[in-house]
Amino acid sequence: MDPTFDEFVLAAATADLSEEPAARADADCLEFRMDLAEDSLDALSAYDGDLPLIATNRAAWEGGEADDENRLEDLAEAARTEAVEAIDVELASVLEGEANGVLEAASANDVRAIVSAHDFEGTPSRPELVRTLTEAGKHGDVAKLAVTAESRADTLTLLSATEQLSRQGDRVATMAMGEVGRHTRAVAPVYGSRIGYAPVDPARATAPGQYDLATLRELVGALGERKREN
Ligand SMILES: O=C1C[C@@](O)(C(=O)O)C[C@@H](O)[C@@H]1O
């Protein structure tokens, strides 16, 4: 994995770090969905796999399952763990001023911060997408935005915003969730998106419309993004 996200990173999403061997051939890293895991901090400290980790502790109000008051403290703890190369924190938490501890722990441990926003209802207007990504990019190393496409036009709006920001030199990661936008998961890297997500276990997708891992690797590979050595 390129820890700077200057190159595309394919993250295999899982709640179970023991699945790492199954992801090794196709993924650049694991996204550890702490919110979907049992005893996530214990699992992290026991982890001895080869793939580096992105730690995510997604809030229930942002489509995840973490609703406890230790959510951000646990994420900060994850940032202090050796195998963790990046953490993912919600833009809304950052703007509320709740994520300072997480961002500080990340920066102190040379861990990159992915600042993310999700829209499970639809695709905001192009200026709104650009605004959200620009705002996220002010606080993190990668600005990530997942929307729900309801039309092909929505997917073009997302890809166009992605292209604009990456051309300006911003590190962004974008994808459209759901069936209509599914192909953006393969195509967005062509327009500059730096991270793609696919579940290690196809039966346990972490978002609507995800391809299985081998398929996403093949698709992005065919479009020019190769797997990197760790
Ligand atoms: O934010 C994202 C992107 C995602 O929602 C997707 O659409 O693939 C999957 C999540 O696991 C990850 O944290």
UniProtKB/TrEMBL annotation:
<feature type="binding site">
    <location>
        <position position="185"/>
    </location>
    <ligand>
        <name>3-dehydroquinate</name>
    </ligand>
</feature>
<comment type="function">
    <text>Involved in the third step of the chorismate pathway, which leads to the biosynthesis of aromatic amino acids. Catalyzes the cis-dehydration of 3-dehydroquinate (DHQ) and introduces the first double bond of the aromatic ring to yield 3-dehydroshikimate.</text>
</comment>
<keyword id="KW-0028">Amino-acid biosynthesis</keyword>
<feature type="active site" description="Schiff-base intermediate with substrate">
    <location>
        <position position="144"/>
    </location>
</feature>
<comment type="similarity">
    <text>Belongs to the type-I 3-dehydroquinase family.</text>
</comment>
<dbReference type="GO" id="GO:0008652">
    <property type="term" value="P:amino acid biosynthetic process"/>
</dbReference>
<feature type="binding site">
    <location>
        <position position="206"/>
    </location>
    <ligand>
        <name>3-dehydroquinate</name>
    </ligand>
</feature>
<dbReference type="GO" id="GO:0009073">
    <property type="term" value="P:aromatic amino acid family biosynthetic process"/>
</dbReference>
<keyword id="KW-0456">Lyase</keyword>
<dbReference type="GO" id="GO:0003855">
    <property type="term" value="F:3-dehydroquinate dehydratase activity"/>
</dbReference>
<dbReference type="InterPro" id="IPR013785">
    <property type="entry name" value="Aldolase_TIM"/>
</dbReference>
<keyword id="KW-0057">Aromatic amino acid biosynthesis</keyword>
<feature type="binding site">
    <location>
        <position position="210"/>
    </location>
    <ligand>
        <name>3-dehydroquinate</name>
    </ligand>
</feature>
<dbReference type="Pfam" id="PF01487">
    <property type="entry name" value="DHquinase_I"/>
</dbReference>
<dbReference type="InterPro" id="IPR001381">
    <property type="entry name" value="DHquinase_I"/>
</dbReference>
<dbReference type="GO" id="GO:0009423">
    <property type="term" value="P:chorismate biosynthetic process"/>
</dbReference>
<feature type="binding site">
    <location>
        <position position="58"/>
    </location>
    <ligand>
        <name>3-dehydroquinate</name>
    </ligand>
</feature>
<feature type="binding site">
    <location>
        <begin position="31"/>
        <end position="33"/>
    </location>
    <ligand>
        <name>3-dehydroquinate</name>
    </ligand>
</feature>
<dbReference type="GO" id="GO:0046279">
    <property type="term" value="P:3,4-dihydroxybenzoate biosynthetic process"/>
</dbReference>
<comment type="pathway">
    <text>Metabolic intermediate biosynthesis; chorismate biosynthesis; chorismate from D-erythrose 4-phosphate and phosphoenolpyruvate: step 3/7.</text>
</comment>
<keyword id="KW-0704">Schiff base</keyword>
<protein>
    <recommendedName>
        <fullName>3-dehydroquinate dehydratase</fullName>
        <ecNumber>4.2.1.10</ecNumber>
    </recommendedName>
</protein>
<comment type="subunit">
    <text>Homodimer.</text>
</comment>
<feature type="active site" description="Proton donor/acceptor">
    <location>
        <position position="118"/>
    </location>
</feature>
<dbReference type="InterPro" id="IPR050146">
    <property type="entry name" value="Type-I_3-dehydroquinase"/>
</dbReference>
